[in-house]
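Dear Dr. H.,

I hope your travels went smoothly. While you were away I took the liberty of generating a structure for the chain from your last submission, since the lab meeting agenda had it listed for discussion. I wanted you to have the full record in hand beforehand rather than looking at slides cold. The sequence, exactly as received, is reproduced here:
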Amino acid sequence: MSEQPKRLLSVKESAYYIDLSPRTLYNRIAPGSKDPFPIKPVRQGKRISFDIRDLDAWIDRLKSEQGNGNPTN
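The corresponding predicted structure, in token form, is as follows:
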């Protein structure tokens, strides 16, 4: 029986997944953040997680905004 991949990632796992520091991600999800993170976290009591599908969709939007995913210079 194969193990199903995790759908909800912790803040630390999410930060690693999108190449940010956990501190930056915490700062961007804090109430009143000047640069709020565009994805709402899933809150379960004190636990904060992100849905990997939301992270993937956000990455896909970033890539489409940049054309083919290559940086523009």
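Two observations you may find useful: Residues 52-65 form the longest helix (14 residues). The beta strands are 8-10, 42-44, 47-51.

With kind regards,
E. W.
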